[in-house]
Prior knowledge:
The chain is of the alpha/beta class. The chain has helices spanning 18-32, 101-118, 136-142, 170-177, 196-203, 212-217, 221-224, 228-233, 268-281, 302-314, 327-339, 352-361, 377-383, 394-399, 414-430, 433-442, 448-466; strands spanning 2-6, 36-42, 54-63, 66-77, 80-86, 125-129, 155-159, 167-169, 189-190, 193-195, 206-209, 238-240, 289-296, 318-325, 344-348, 364-367, 387-391, 407-409. The two termini are 18 Å apart. The chain binds adenosine-5'-diphosphate. Adenosine-5'-diphosphate (ADP) binds next to α1, β13, β14 and α12.
Amino acid sequence: MRILFASSEVFPYSKTGGLADVVGALPAALARRGHEVLVVSPWYATLAADPPPLWIGDVDVPFDGSVESAGIGTLESDGVRYAFVGHEAFRRDGLYGEPDDVRRFALFTRAVAPAAERVGFLPDVVHAHDWHVGYLPMLLSHGWHLPDGWPGLPSAFTIHNVQHQGVSGLDETIHWLRLPQSVRASGMDHFGSANAMQAALDFAWRITTVSPSYAEEIQRPEYGYGLDGTLRHEAGKLVGILNGIDGEIWNPANDAALPAPYDTDDRSGKAAASQALAAELGLDGDGPILGLVSRFADQKGIDLLLEAGTALVASGWRLALLGSGAPELEASARDLARGHSGRVGLHVGYAEPLAHLVYAGSDALAIPSRFEPCGLSQLIAMRYGTLPIARATGGLRDTIEHDVTGFLFDDADVDSLLAATEQARIAFDTGRASALIDAAMRRDFGWNRSAARYEELYEALDALRQGGRA
Ligand code: ADP
């Protein structure tokens, strides 16, 4: 089948989080299974492509009552084709966080079909990811200003995080997207505002999210961020499919960022990674290392870990913290590290090779998330023989087996986190941890199983289309 992925980020070209990893890995897994995949993504000023994409010309994008011109760049890698959409709106320092984000990604959404047409790709199925391209299923189902062959194409939409929804004014959004007024009465209207994610939930033929537990949680008010009602209404077309990790990028037996390779048969290289990590972050003495690789956001429960920091150090842990994000969390992480020199190491920033070293060199990884759609860091940690200590929510609950491949705790509070780390510390002190590490490393979190589930979904959509669903 011909499958089009539309996403605001794709590893290794652009990344702020797990969305990039998924869109970077799933298309290659589908290509290996014999499908033709085109990934359409913005051509950011910061795009990490060397050599850069090949510019093949401009396309007209219907937008804002008129037409905008966008440059299309292509490249091919691992059997997957990429079309990058270049426009002044994407020539900024970062990917997100600008006041005009919803408008910029509405423009990108409008550019997806012309970009694909420009490279001669007419999909059988369109798979859109997160709010940035949330209006794509709606455009397809109505067919306004689309190339020939596009109106009525089946669409799947994946929720990677329901907290971020792309909210804007109804009138302006209808104008940007060049829609008729009749669309006001559709799912794009969420209590009087335009909501890109709700529009996707309404118009996509199928909705997926990235773990079975999260699929259930987001139908409840505590996790639904105002869309729980819509999700309950659309539950019949919602399914949770776990993410995988790319076994070539995340492989302790062949990882250039580590001082020595290791695997389940011989884990001695893990001790070398611990030493290198300790040296890198200025840790001294003994004691198990509790790592962290995360965005510093409220969702991730970083505040809980930092609050627990002094007690963790007192009970013998060393901390290896890597992350960046909310300034107040960065500041308290710096305070903690200053107060416990030699026991708490910190790198504020986004650092790919250091992340590999933290995963490999730590004994356990802290993931005290308040909610976690799937989470990739626990999967990576397990593959590197590092036991996740995580809150039992979303994909963490679905992928970590308590006291077998890691440790889970129920409540998002400091005491629960400390109790779980204490269980882990005892496992390390008594030598019991070795069996857990072995079990964690042997779990298969590769993409193949999930790719097969997506394949079934695309086939079901194609069959529906043949049967005249549209
Ligand atoms: P989310 O998408 O919510 O940020 P995930 O666990 O799904 O969380 O994915 C996070 C991804 O980003 C992982 O690949 C993780 O290794 C990476 N990552 C997060 N923070 C950093 C950082 N500071 N430096 C390097 N990689 C990071």
